[in-house]
Amino acid sequence: MEGDARGSRIALVAAELVNPPPGGLDALGVLDAAGWGVMQLPAAWYDDEVAAPLLEQIAEQVDEFARHGYDIVQVGDRAGLAEALAALGHEPPPAIHAPRDAAELQAFLQSRPTTAPR
Amino acid sequence: MARPMPDAPPVTMADRATGASILESVAQVAFVAHCLLNQNAKVDGGARCPGVYSPLVEVLRERGWELEQMPCPELAFTGLNRFWAVREQLDTLAYRRHCARIASAVAGAVAARVARGDEVVLIGLEGSPSMGVRVTSSDPARGGRPEWPDGAPELTPGRGILVEELLAELERRGVPAPRAGGVTHVLPGHDPAVERDALLAVLDG
After folding, report:
1. Strands A9-13 and A95-96: what pairing?
2. CA pair distance B188, B135, nearest whole angstrom
3. Could you tell me the fold of the domain covering B26-143+151-204?
């Protein structure tokens, strides 16, 4: 393994925090500035029929990152995520469910321990 | 290595946006390759930045486009310790089935967006055996012990496997194929300004 620029930290992020309304919390901007990768959760308005297959894919990818020791957190919520993770034997990751502002999200990210991927 | 936290709060989408509000009834939505928001999904040695490929996000937000991230087909199939690969190494029945399952999931989201009148584009990763839109990678002779000379000419015009499966699934569902382009940061001679202009051409139609 030669290594590269990856941060080895990944946030599962509610779609509404990736695409915020004007004046809303830009979680994607906060995570980008802090060097975190983003796994975007399905939009809240998607029917279960649309969201479930996407959540299944997200859970499979979380499984691979977790297997290698990447730090994974959750920012915001998405119905069905916990069930998709549980189907693969995973607990929901540490989460900040409703960050009030960028400072609160930054503090949450900074509270995470340093990762040591394998 | 993650970048340090900035002292100032990050620029918000509202600060960046110059176009119409994304909350208007008809949205513009870019379905983007997974790694463009999460470089951790890249094959080892391939990540260009810690997490988010900012140049793409900036272009999309300047034009008022929402982002929708597609799953990475290679990550879940061959894992984080996978070797760099060309199309022929991945193009098996099992991988096609895997990509078809992802394509079905993405097509469901595209169809839901199109059904409510949203404008959709597809942003892949040029040079990728899975996510290339106009450039993929090909070398029919590659295999065995993973050693080959730098600069081997595997880049070739064509689509990646997931992009092929997604366009086929959309056609089966009767959903018009979206305009599509790709980020070029893995191609030799990558020019950020050229990449930006090409992305704008896709977004502006």
Report:
1. unpaired
2. 12
3. Rossmann fold (3.40.50)
